[in-house]
Write a structure and sequence with these properties.
Low-confidence stretches: 193-207
Largest sheet: none
Radius of gyration: 19 Å
Order of helices and strands: HHHHHHHHHHH
Oligomer: single chain
Pfam families: VTT_dom
Family: Belongs to the DedA family.
Mean pLDDT: 79
InterPro entries: DedA_domain (IPR051311), VTT_dom (IPR032816)
Number of helices: 11
Distance between the termini: 69 Å
Number of domains: 1
Protein name: Membrane protein
Transmembrane segments: 12-30, 50-71, 136-158, 164-184
Shape: globular
Helix content: over 70%
Length: 207
């Protein structure tokens, strides 16, 4: 925390947050969430500004979303996606759901582990028009930025004497919330009838 302190009071923090969140759109191993949470923890003391933290983060997320979207529509996109069977399956599964509630899916994916990159790649692969992708991406970026910085801010308020503990609590709550959304999503998916289920085959046979 001694090393992080000077960064949090520097004007360079805001472009740093924007850059990290942009790169995180194509390189998920970058710890942008931890950086935003830490900024929120320190923002409780008045420096940095929590409003500027949210704006810089949202801008970075929005740009990162479009980097992944553009990459998936490029010549290199399919090659990179198909290099990993897990990624290709996840992108294909997300793409099949884009015809229904596109905006809601894009927003919800920001709160799922790995969901942001997968959904953005799926939108690009499916050739979703920017007129539909960009507004949903903007809403998702602002929502995630406010949520993540807010968790850090609350953690900083609750653990004034120990900012590191506030950061840890913020990370824990973020993971728990993402896991809860994923659990709800899986339960909803499991309730849907599968191909070959009697509920689907009966009308065809009756006809």
């Amino acid at each position: 925390m001694t090393l992080v302190g000077p960064v949090m009071t520097s004007p360079l923090l805001y472009p740093l947050l924007a850059g990290l969140c942009s790169l995180d759109g194509v390189l998920p191993m970058i710890p942008s969430e931890a950086a935003v949470l830490a900024s929120g923890v320190f923002a409780h003391s008045g420096t940095p500004s929590v409003v500027l933290v949210v704006l810089a983060t949202a801008l970075g997320v929005f740009v990162g979303d479009h980097l992944a979207y553009g990459l998936s529509r490029s010549v290199l996109g399919p090659r990179l996606i198909n290099r990993s069977r897990h990624v290709s399956r996840a992108v294909a599964a997300a793409g099949r759901q884009l015809d229904r509630r596109t905006g809601l899916l894009i927003v919800m994916s920001r709160f799922l582990p790995g969901g942001r990159v997968t959904m953005n790649l799926a939108c690009g692969t499916a050739r979703l028009p920017l007129a539909r992708f960009s507004p949903a991406s903007a809403v998702a970026a602002v929502a995630w930025a406010a949520y993540t910085a807010g968790l850090g801010f609350v953690g900083g308020a609750a653990f004034v004497e120990n900012p590191l503990l506030g950061l840890g609590v913020g990370l824990g709550l973020s993971f728990a919330f993402g896991g809860l959304i994923e659990l709800v999503r899986r339960r909803i998916s499991n309730r849907k009838p599968h191909p070959g289920h009697p509920a689907e085959t009966l009308p065809a046979r009756a006809g």
